[in-house]
Amino acid sequence: MAKQHKSYAGLRYARKEIASLVPPTMKFVEPFAGHAWVSREVCDTKAKVCILGDIQREPLEWVKKMHRIKNAKLIQQDWRETIKECRDPNSICLIDPPWDKCYEAWKGNCDDFREEILKRVREIPNVIITLNPSTENIAVSYTHLSLPTNQTV
User: Fold this and answer.
1) For residue 28, is pLDDT > 90?
2) CA–CA separation, 132 vs 5, rounded Å?
């Protein structure tokens, strides 16, 4: 059973546990970077290149100032563009979207893109996807990584 944490988004309190699932890789990609808490744990130790995308400028500026990740490329763009980087078989992609929260300030990320995300992750060779336990009608019971099929965080 997945562990539940009492914070939304950013994975601040689950970052070390999720980072432990990531093996050394050429490229780590986070299309919904936000404050990039998992990337902070992964980028300078396990990945040669990190690509962190977010539609909003503010969280990326915060990441640049607060995390100071040396090998990160911060890109302000829609997740649909950033996720293209995940197709590389030498990459690992962390998908942590706002499954059931929508804020008007996100300007353009308020559409219901759950089905589109689930369709696209099936095309990604190595993916870790987070799910909010309260989200209805969402079920992903796999990762493509070499993990036991029942391992969840």
Assistant:
1) yes
2) 10
